[in-house]
Each structure stands twice: as structure tokens, then as C-alpha cells.
Specification:
The complex is a heterodimer of chains A (290) and B (293).
Chain A: H1 2-10, H2 12-52, H3 55-58, H4 73-80, H5 83-115, H6 121-131, H7 134-148, H8 154-178, H9 182-190, H10 195-206, H11 208-224, H12 227-232, H13 240-246, H14 255-275, H15 280-284
Helix pairs in contact in A: 2-14, 4-14, 5-8, 5-11, 6-8, 8-11, 9-10
Chain B: H1 2-36, H2 54-60, H3 63-94, H4 101-113, H5 116-127, H6 133-142, H7 154-183, H8 186-194, H9 199-227, H10 231-236, H11 248-257, H12 262-287
Helix pairs in contact in B: 1-12, 2-12, 3-7, 3-9, 3-11, 4-7, 7-9, 11-12
The chains are: A mainly alpha (290), B mainly alpha (293).
């Protein structure tokens, strides 16, 4: 130890060198961070800009970066194409499926945490369900739902969104329930609270922040979902993810409307994402990384 | 007596809705599809004759099925590899505090929040050879006229798909790795620095081994998601040129919902589900995600 200190004190230039290096590292860091931000934001900004450009500016070659004049005509055009009805459909589907999944999923999660229902294989079975390719899952479901005559209804899409959101909720809530101190539950039990009472009056209120975050993620996943909705939506129910591709059927691509509907569709998600950002990693990994 | 009974029924009562719904939308349809896979049910023919395992034999002789699987694996491995390297590099930069770090984190993460189908169409516009900005930017950077028809040729179509996927999902891997790095204790690094370990040595023999479980989770989650790739392909290329960028999800969609070969689609789906199931069992064993948590 003494040796090393001796060496360093005698080599003053090395320190200055190091400080210079540190400055270079700092600058390099800001450059890389700047590039990353530019790369991440550019497509989003371009889409928002497209939604307020005049069609002649959108189809201009070379592309026009900053248009001289802005228009909101595309947002009105979306109205004529029934785009806002799709917004409502997405809201209903994501809202209702989230409400269902939070109630049903937290019951199951509590049962798994408290009584180890189904042993270790139950949560893992659920995880498997989440990773199955939707197209492979939805095909038999489509035939099955056709027999039941529920194709093109909210019910059909909401039910299928439970396939990925239920396992998610169970895994997330299992993690949050585990973090609740046992003492609180025990003392409630000693006070004569029933098991249902303990769950309802003690565990749920304590896990409320976790429940809200889980609900936010379920809403986001449901809002983003495409393959299930594509196959189960027809004419009466068209969520945003299915509405958008329909703008590409015509001969002329309506880029302005595409930009407008894209902008409208991502705003609620950005808001939710920013609100839930503290729990982002936990949400993305179903609670396996905290 | 009643108390004893309720003690056993309550746990089951709590999981019943979950079990009920999931079996209703997965297990019953699966059984239905399994039965169907032994019949020929096509758009063109009358009736539904029983043909035994013929559908399965056809799946294993279907070149397009396996080329779609191959395409999926190519996109998956290229995107996953690049996303991992970029994500790790960014995470190593972001693990240290700097001014504006939190604001930047929020911005960098926005792509994950977007609808994948919107991501696809957003990039379809960016890749456009006439009015898209990518050719324009490349022209400016390289100082000569660049005019690439990105989505029209197989190699550039692959590049377009991979870059688009990378844009959307690098933040996902980045965030998970960043969380892992932040949770490592600084004492180990201080000790290593005192011992005179170089940054590279520290990274190789401390960071990587300690991060292994987190890296495993990140790659497994992203890999499984990436295998389903569908939205971006539908928006960008629809499998074109030809069927060269057709992924397995897109091909399955076409057999079932464009060619209406119900029996064959059932068999093709079941083969894929079984394959993914086997892969998952092996992957989870290999990574040993901590069971009890």
C-alpha cells in the first residue's frame, strides 16, 4: 500500500493526464447521449410533423424538414374516416380488460402468494401462456368464437387480451403482495378478521400503488396489441391498431391521416409511461428484475 | 367443520376465475384445433374429410414454413445481438450520474411505449426512397446522392426491419441492464480499482458475471417477444420482396386467414406451439430464473 502511494505522489503529470482523460470521457458521454436521444426522438417527431404538414409537403422530394405552413386538416380527416370511434373502441377495450384483469388477477396472485395454490408450476404455466405466439393462439380461438358468434365484439377482444395480461398481473401482484409485511396481516387475523377481510381491508390497500402500476401496464399492453384485434375485429369494433393499417388499402396513402392517428394513439401511452416510469423495469420483466 | 372446509375452498375460489378464463380462451380452442388438424378443411373443397396425420406430414415438407422460421430466426438473432450490445453500452454510460440524466432517460424510453404497428408505419415513411428522410440524411452525411429502395430488395429490407426493431426495443434491454448495473454494489468496484484492475478487467470479471441473471432475463424476454414479430413486418414489407421477409407469424396468418386452409393451419400452429413450448422449458432450465423469487 505504502509503495503505491509513493509512486503516485511522485508522478504528478499522470494526474493531470487523468483529469484530461476524464474531461474527454465526459464530452464523449454527452455526444453519445445526444445521439441516442436524437435517434430515439427523431421518428416520433417526424410522425408528429407529418400530421401537421400539407400533403404537398409530405410527398415532397427531397423531404421538407420544417414546413412553412401548418395544417390541422388531417385531424379533421381522421374524424371523417371514423378514427375517433376507433379511439373510443381502444379506450373501451383497454379500459374494460384492465379492470377485469386487475380484479381477477390479484385474487389469483393473492391465492398463490398466501396459500401456494398450484405449487411452483402454476405461475410458470401462466408465464408460458404469455409467450405463445398470438397468431398461433388466436387461430383456434377464432374458430371457437365463430361458433359462439362473438367475433367482432368488445367481449371477444377483451377476452383475448386477458391471455397476456392475466399472467402479467399475477406475476406483478405476486411480487407486490410478497413485499407486504406479514405482521399487518397477522394482527388483523388475531383481531378476528376473516381471510377475505384480510385480503380486502389489509393487503389490497397496502398493495394499492403496485395495483395501480400493474393496471397502467395492462392498459398499455392492451392498447398496443395488434394480432388478436386484427383477427377478432371486423366492422363494428375497430381498435386503433387495426384502424391504422386500413388507411393503406387505398391507392393513395394518406400519410397525413396516418401521422395524425399515430400521434393520437401514442399520446395516452406516453403519459402513462412517464407516470409509471419508476416501475418501468419491473413492469417490463413481470417483476423478475426490480 | 365449516371453517375447515372454507380454508381449502377459498384458495381455489380465488384462482378459479383466472383458471376458468384462461382455459376458456386457450385450452378448449387448443383441443378444438388439435382435432381439426386431422381433417382437411379447405376453402376450395366440399366437406371435411378425415386425413389422419397428413397435415402434419405436409407441414414438415413445407419449404415456406421452414424458410419463414429461418427468416424469423435471422431477424431475431441480428436484432437481439445489436440491441444487446447497444443496450449494454448505453447502460454503462447511464449508470453514472450526469446532468439531465432523468429527463434523457424518459426520452430514450419513449419508443417502447409506442404501438408496434405505429412504429412500423412510422418507419415505412422514414425508409421511403423518395420523400423519406433516411436517404436524404445519408446523402448529406456521405456527400453523394444516395437513392436506395430500402424495402424493395431483400438485403436492404432485412436491414430496414432490423433497424426498426432495434429502434423500438433497444430501450427495453437498456432499461433492464441499467437496473441490473445500478443494483451492483460500488464497494466491489472500489476494491477492484484499489487492486489496480483495468476498466476492461473490471467489466469482464466483475460486471459480466454479476449481471448474468439480469442479462438472461433481458435476452429471454426480448427473444421470446421477438419470435412473435408480426406488426412491424405487416407494416413495413408484408413479407416482400416475394416471401423473403415473411416471418412465421405472418405465414401462419396467411395460411389461416388468407388461404383459408383451416385444417392445415391447425397442424402448422400446433407444431409451432409445441416447438416454442420445448424451447421455453429448455431456456428456463438453462437460465434458472430464480423460482421462488
Amino acid at each position: 500500500m505504502g509503495d503505491k502511494r509513493h509512486i503516485y505522489t511522485n508522478k504528478e503529470p499522470k494526474r493531470i493526464q487523468k483529469r484530461k482523460n476524464l474531461k474527454a470521457v465526459k464530452i464523449a458521454r454527452y455526444v453519445i447521449v445526444g445521439l441516442a436521444v436524437a435517434f430515439a426522438l427523431f421518428p416520433i417527431v417526424w410522425t408528429v410533423l407529418t400530421s401537421v404538414k400539407f400533403p404537398s409537403d409530405i410527398l415532397h422530394s427531397p423531404p421538407i424538414w420544417l414546413p412553412k405552413e401548418l395544417t390541422f386538416a388531417h385531424y379533421i380527416g381522421v374524424q371523417e374516416l371514423n378514427g375517433y370511434k376507433s379511439f373510443k373502441d381502444s379506450l373501451i377495450i383497454a379500459g374494460l380488460s384492465t379492470a377485469c384483469v386487475v380484479v381477477i388477477g390479484s385474487l389469483a396472485a393473492y391465492s398463490i402468494t398466501r396459500w401456494k395454490t398450484g405449487g411452483k408450476s402454476f405461475p410458470f404455466g401462466l408465464l408460458t401462456l404469455r409467450v405463445l405466439p398470438p397468431i398461433a393462439v388466436v387461430f383456434p380461438v377464432f374458430l371457437f368464437f365463430k361458433e359462439l358468434r362473438i367475433i367482432d365484439t368488445y367481449l371477444a377482444i377483451i377476452l383475448m387480451h386477458l391471455v397476456f395480461n392475466l399472467p402479467f398481473t399475477v406475476w406483478m401482484m405476486r411480487g407486490f403482495f410478497r413485499e407486504i409485511p406479514q405482521e399487518a396481516q397477522e394482527s388483523a387475523r388475531i383481531d378476528g378478521c376473516s381471510e377475505v377481510g384480510v385480503f380486502w381491508r389489509v393487503v389490497l390497500p397496502l398493495a394499492a400503488p403496485g395495483l395501480i402500476v400493474t393496471a397502467m401496464f395492462c392498459f398499455i399492453f392492451s392498447w398496443q396489441e395488434y394480432p388478436y384485434a386484427l383477427i377478432l375485429a371486423r366492422r363494428r369494433v375497430i381498435p386503433l391498431s387495426v384502424f391504422l393499417p386500413s388507411l393503406f388499402g387505398q391507392q393513395m396513402i394518406m400519410w397525413g391521416e396516418v401521422g395524425a392517428i399515430s400521434t393520437i394513439s401514442m399520446l395516452p401511452l406516453f403519459a402513462l409511461g412517464i407516470l409509471a416510469r419508476k416501475y418501468f423495469v419491473r413492469g417490463l420483466t413481470m417483476g423478475t428484475v426490480k | 367443520m365449516i371453517r375447515l372446509k372454507s380454508k381449502k375452498t377459498l384458495p381455489l375460489l380465488f384462482v378459479l376465475p383466472t383458471m376458468g378464463i384462461l382455459s376458456f380462451v386457450t385450452i378448449f380452442p387448443f383441443i378444438y384445433a388439435f382435432v381439426l388438424s386431422f381433417f382437411q378443411w379447405d376453402y376450395q373443397i366440399m366437406g371435411r374429410p378425415f386425413i389422419g396425420i397428413q397435415n402434419y406430414l405436409n407441414v414438415f415438407q413445407d419449404g415456406r414454413y421452414f424458410s419463414a422460421l429461418g427468416t424469423t430466426v435471422i431477424i431475431l438473432s441480428a436484432a437481439l445481438g445489436l440491441e444487446f450490445m447497444l443496450g449494454l453500452a448505453l447502460a454503462l454510460i447511464f449508470v453514472e450520474e450526469f446532468k439531465g440524466r432523468n429527463a434523457v432517460l424518459v426520452m430514450v424510453v419513449l419508443p417502447v411505449m409506442m404501438l408496434p404497428i405505429v412504429v412500423g408505419y412510422t418507419w415505412k415513411l422514414l425508409w421511403n426512397d423518395q420523400y423519406g428522410p433516411i436517404n436524404h440524411i445519408l446523402t448529406g452525411l456521405l456527400g453523394k446522392e444516395i437513392n436506395i429502395l430500402w424495402l424493395a430488395k431483400t438485403p436492404t429490407a432485412f436491414i430496414s426491419i432490423i433497424v426498426t426493431d432495434l429502434w423500438e426495443w433497444t430501450p427495453f434491454i437498456f432499461l433492464i441492464l441499467l437496473a441490473g448495473l445500478t443494483s451492483l454494489s460500488p464497494e466491489i468496484y472500489e476494491a477492484a480499482a484499489i487492486d489496480g484492475a483495468s476498466p476492461w478487467a473490471r467489466f469482464r470479471s466483475i460486471t459480466l458475471p454479476l449481471m448474468r441473471p439480469v442479462i438472461g432475463v433481458a435476452l429471454l424476454f426480448r427473444g421470446l417477444e421477438s419470435f412473435k414479430i408480426f406488426d412491424i413486418i405487416v407494416a413495413l414489407t408484408q413479407g416482400a420482396p416475394g416471401t423473403s421477409t415473411e416471418t412465421i407469424s405472418l405465414y401462419l396468418y396467411r395460411i389461416g386467414f388468407q388461404y383459408f386452409r383451416m385444417g392445415y393451419a391447425s397442424a402448422a400452429n400446433i407444431v409451432l406451439l409445441v416447438a416454442v413450448g420445448c424451447f421455453l422449458v429448455v431456456a428456463v432450465r438453462l437460465l434458472r430464473i430464480e423460482r421462488g423469487g
